[in-house]
Design goal:
28% of the residues lie in helices and 27% in strands. By secondary structure, it is an alpha/beta fold. Helix 7 runs parallel beside helix 8.
């Protein structure tokens, strides 16, 4: 609930007032707050979508007395997230998001033009989606096989908790949970895994705001890691950076969008990594449960026998 209330401060006063009246149980299970101009304010929760009335009541059928979001509410959310300094956040804005801290992110929907290299015409933004990040304490024993640390790929659809689980894994490995302190390098391109580079474990380095392919190479050269953690691998350049790091003694803990193993095999990026046997174990997250809940654990020997 604290995370929910924290992101509300980035919203127009009218929107904030409505959301502060949402009942505690709904706040606890909210993953996203969605403001789309001229449509209903709604929340994406672990058990579905809830529309919000002007009184803060949440229902799963869109009511006639819904709170209709105005263009002003959308625009002010972006301005507040930027600290009213759009130019200072130009790089994030041009990539379609703003990092809010504490693992939260505001995705920006619409058209954002540029003028002299800076974002312009915020009125062309039609919606924002605020992802609420949380730190969970999860059992991550799947990282080990006979006391040997594995390279692991987390797979799941959007909002299944991949980033949340990576955060927990990095904390556990670098924080001595398993009887030793692993040197962990976190390549955090969008500043979501550990906002502002903050991590409570003593043996982790966080490289924020850098392209994953460059961050992986930089971590190897500069940080002497035993483990590299990075989120949402999806391009040939990122796969190539991982492959270039093979036989360096480093383990990789990564994530990728895919609900089931067959979807992984439809991704060329994954096939390149799979053919080189980069990952020892594959963890599939349950999209129908709370973020970070595991649906299936598959060893690489079992992946060999799955259908493509």
């Amino acid at each position: 609930m604290q995370a929910f209330n924290g992101v509300c401060r980035y919203l127009h006063k009218q929107t904030e007032t409505v959301l502060q009246n949402v009942e505690k149980e709904i706040k606890m299970k909210t993953m996203e707050i969605v403001l789309r101009a001229q449509t209903a304010l709604y929340l994406v929760c672990t058990d579905g979508t809830y529309f919000v009335t002007p009184q803060g009541k949440c229902v799963q059928n869109c009511p006639s007395d819904m709170h209709v979001v105005s263009f002003t509410e959308v625009r002010e959310a972006v301005l507040r997230a930027c600290g009213f300094s759009v130019y200072a956040h130009r790089n994030e804005l041009m990539n379609g998001y703003i990092s809010l801290g504490n693992g939260c992110r505001m995705a920006i929907i619409g058209t954002l033009g540029t003028m002299h290299g800076a974002p312009a015409d915020l009125s062309a933004i039609t919606a924002v989606r605020i992802r609420i990040g949380r730190l969970i304490k999860a059992d991550t024993d799947f990282l080990f096989d006979s006391d040997m640390l594995c390279s692991v790929l987390l797979a799941g659809p959007p909002a299944s908790g991949k980033t949340t689980m990576l955060r927990c894994i990095a904390e556990n490995l670098a924080g001595g949970t398993y009887g030793r302190y692993y040197r962990v390098s976190v390549v955090d391109e969008r500043n979501e895994i550990f906002p502002d580079g903050l991590i409570r474990s003593p043996c982790a380095d966080v490289l924020s705001g850098i392209k994953k392919e460059k961050g992986i190479n930089a971590a190897l050269r500069l940080c002497a890691p035993q483990v590299i953690v990075c989120d949402e691998i999806g391009t040939f350049a990122e796969a190539a950076a991982i492959l270039d790091s093979l036989n360096s003694g480093v383990k990789f803990i990564c994530s990728m969008h895919a609900a089931v193993r067959e979807e992984l095999f439809r991704r060329d990026c994954f096939i390149r990594l799979y053919e080189k046997q980069v990952f020892d174990r594959f963890i599939f997250l349950d999209p129908h449960s709370s973020p970070g809940r595991i649906a299936e654990i598959v060893d690489k020997t079992e992946m060999i026998h799955c259908g493509i």
